[in-house]
Each structure stands twice: as structure tokens, then as C-alpha cells.
Amino acid sequence: MLLAAGRGERLRPLTDATPKPLLCAGGRPLIEWQVERLVAAGFRDLVVNHSHLGEQIERSLGDGRRFNARIRHSRESPALESAGGIAQALPLLGAEPFLVASADIHTDFDYARLIPVAEDIARHPARRAAHFVLVENPEWHSDGDMGLAAGQVTRGKPWMTYGNISVFHPQLFADIAPGTVLRLFPWAYTWVDQGRVTGEVLRGEWDNVGTAEQLVALDRRLARSR
Predict the structure, then answer these.
(1) Domain range holding 200?
(2) For the whole model, what pTM was predicted?
């Protein structure tokens, strides 16, 4: 599932007429970088949620055939935040563990690494219900979000930053009523406190595009790499 329903307030006025995931860096919409990397890793059945100017996202991605994927869209009005959006999309996501990533990050992370993680969560949901990919704290989020010790996500320091990439067992969202507005955090800390969330650190390229300055910096770096 690609989360694409955010309004992108800090990117206004750019996002007044264009949804944040369709803003371009390196000559391509942010969400297309994500779709292609997921498909290359073997994830070809994708769900995209959207709200603000969501019809533009649907027109841009279509049904996914041009990416060699199947893309289905989960429409929200109003936007339901991350946990609420995932719960709303459960009928499209199915009964097996699924990967969730933000549509507005850019990364060279190998999503194929998460296939065996999802398989293990499917086999042992009582022991392992979710998996978070963390990054070193960026300058704009120096305090971090959570810790990691021996592969287990914790609430202890030193904290790292949630990288907007995760794997979840769908049962975690089963009690959230469709249409509920609910952020992923602090809600997901329940499973961290139960010791059921594993994690890993992404050491490679990772950009969470939240401001116009960050978008310009990413665009310039991708242009240089081309």
C-alpha cells in the first residue's frame, strides 16, 4: 500500500493544484519512483489511497498496467491519516501481511528484503505483528521516534526516525471502523510495547519530501545522478 492522501500543507502553494505525490523530482512524480521500485522488488499488486486532488493520482497511475502492476485506489473524503487509511483499505489489501510505504519518500531501499519478513509475520503473528524500517535522524527530526535493540523496536533511547516503510499483519487494523481518522503513531506503539514489532535500519538513500527546499534538493541530486 502506498500512502498518498496527505494534503502537503508545508509544500503549499505547490500542492494547491497538484497532489503531493505527483510533484516531480528528477523529471518524474515522486509516486512513480516508488511504484517502479516496488514492482522491481516483486510487489505488483498495489493499493494507493488518496484524498486531496485524488482524481489526478488515479489519472496519472491508472490501473498500473504501464508499470507492469495492478493498482487499485482507495478513496478518502476526508483524509483518514495513516492508520485510518490502512483500515479503510483492508478489503483491498486482503488477509495476508502487507507492505506500507509513503508515496512521497524517495529511497534506494530494496523492498524485496521485506518479502521474507512478511512471510514470517504470516506464520507467527502472535510473536511478530509488524516490522518498521528506521533511518538515522535527519536534521529536521533530530529527536527521532523510537529505538532499536537487537532487531526489536523499542521505546528506549537512542531514538531513530521511522522511515515511513513498514510491514503489518492486517489483524492489527481489524477493530478500526471504516471512516475512522487515526494516525499511525502513537496508536502503533501498542504493538511496540507488547514486543511484537521488529525493525531494521536503512543506511542508504532516503528522502522524506516535506518542504519545497527538500524537493528542490532531491531534484538537483537526481539530475546530477542522471
Answers:
(1) 2-219
(2) 0.94
